[in-house]
Amino acid sequence: MRVITLPMQCHNAAVMVWVRVGSRDETEPNRGVSHFLEHMLFKGTARYPNQKAISAELNRIGGVFNASTSQEWTNYFCKIPASRQGIVSALRVLSQMTRQPLLRADHMEREKGVVVEEIRKYEDMPERSIQDRMMEHTFAGNTLGVDIAGTEREVLGYDPNFVRAYFMRYYRPENMTLVVAGRGADQLDAEIVHAFGGGYDVVEGAPGVSPRMSATAKSIRRWMDAARASKIPPSARSLAEVRAPSSPAYHKKDTSQVHVCLSWPLDMRFDDHRRQAATSLMSAALGGYMSSRLWLEVREARGLAYSIRTDVDSFEDVALFNVCIGLKSEKAQEGVEATTQVIERLANDEEPLDEREISRAKDYLKGLHILSYDDALSHASSVGHYLALSSDASAAKTVYTKAHFAKLIQGVTSD
Question: Dihedral, CA atoms, 60, 86, 377, 76, nearest 10 degrees?
Fold first, then answer.
């Protein structure tokens, strides 16, 4: 098990366990089982027989806890007041959950209904479900495009023995990372050993972490080769690269707004730090805040949308640049056209980002990064996410220091 400690001078602390497994690792007919396991680990352990006992242990010290599942990882976290007692309690609870869960058949049967209701909940949230449909369309035929929670039919059909076997396969020390952030985090070796056992590695990566290379990523690389062979200006490449062949997909639902998600694949690995910095800056300048290009053009100048934002989804071997818009149905076509025009003018070098826009985006990103150092969970999440996919623990600490991040962002130019 890899362990990384992040001493921080703030009033809160965080303990996170990351497991390198997600919906991308699943096969039919058991899609969604990674997410289902996330639920089940809260239902009781050898030391804490039920969910109430787990909650009581952390609530008594003022802690909050939760978990999350993605396409490539699952994490469990506790955020507590910065104290040795609080961190030790969090270590004890998360160790029990990830090492000795009960995984009882009757608990599983009951939880199936809860997960089904969660699936229905998100289907009723168009601003969330539109991104799920986008992933499904963009990565059709690949496990990256499968809904993280699975389908109702699959969830209701889980066999308890399969769920237990899945846990045993992936919840192994060599596939897990522990992150402890907060005051005195680097002085807890004995407590970590007591909670998780010996034999952990605080520097090197875990054996068994192998890169995922999907058929989708390989096809995107072919598209990128074609883009580079054309006469695309170098400054436009980060956007020109996303012009993979695609067709629109529609999902009809009775809502008062039309929700649109425009997405383009990027040939960019999660650990390509320079390109990650450049893409983050581009995303921020286009739609990251209220003075960004898309916000000013589509919402303020033309009144076509209430919400418009950009983001970048980074996976182990590929990434997506997304623009998400919420607008009236009668303005949907005009809004999409206005949005694509802004992006195309940038991509074709007709209206490149000027120095003022670049400087504003740099200051914004650096400011967000500095603010994250006041929150242990935010900092632990950034480092843990990297470590969940990488075998280089020392690089994670370096990349997410204030100085190194600022250097990466400051090094981005219009070219």
Answer: -70
